[in-house]
Design a protein that fits this description.
With about 150 residues, this protein is of the alpha+beta class. The protein has 2 domains: about 35 residues; about 100 residues, Sandwich (Immunoglobulin-like), CATH 2.60.40. It has 1 helix and 9 strands. The strands form 2 sheets. Strands 4, 5, 7, 8 and 9 form a 5-stranded antiparallel β-sheet that branches. It has a 4-stranded antiparallel β-sheet with strand order 1-2-3-6, with no helix packed on it. It is flat and about 75 Å long.
Length: about 150
């Protein structure tokens, strides 16, 4: 009888360990799904590109404009943009990335909810915007999650 109990005890430990492992894996999988970004998150990032020079993104939930110079060509990146929430919506504003290739510049625009932005990226040389390098415009609306 002692031998039989030991077998049942060993089997009980294996069963408990297997159950614990299954529950742990299920909990980890659930946590991964819950903490992952929603599928629609990519639609909240608006991107504009200047071929061969760099890009800029506007995050519609945070109101942040991010620039990146992608070319070690000696030029910086300028983003020309218009906003609907400033006094003179016809005034073009400029954001710069002069940190060098591979570096980012971040601008939090402090926009009013529902304000719109249109922007394009181009190369710049010591404050002179190189117009022929302008890429297509990106358009976004600031709609923070409340």
């Amino acid at each position: 009888m002692i031998t039989r109990r030991r077998c049942q005890l060993a089997l009980s430990i294996v069963t408990r360990w297997t159950t614990w492992a299954a529950v742990t894996v299920a909990a980890a999988a659930t946590a991964t799904v819950v903490t992952a970004s929603p599928a629609s998150a990519s639609s909240d990032i608006i991107k504009a590109v200047s071929e061969g020079h760099g890009w800029a993104t506007f995050n519609e939930q945070t109101g942040e404009l991010t620039l990146k110079d992608t070319s070690a060509d000696g030029y910086g990146i300028a983003v020309e943009y218009f906003r609907s929430d400033v006094n003179d919506a016809e005034t073009e504003m400029i954001a710069w990335d002069r940190h060098g290739s591979g570096k980012y510049a971040h601008y939090h625009l402090h926009m009013v909810m529902g304000a719109t932005i249109s922007f394009h990226v181009c190369a710049e040389d010591d404050g002179v915007i190189l117009v022929p390098t302008r890429g297509p415009r990106g358009f976004g609306t600031y709609l923070p999650i409340i």
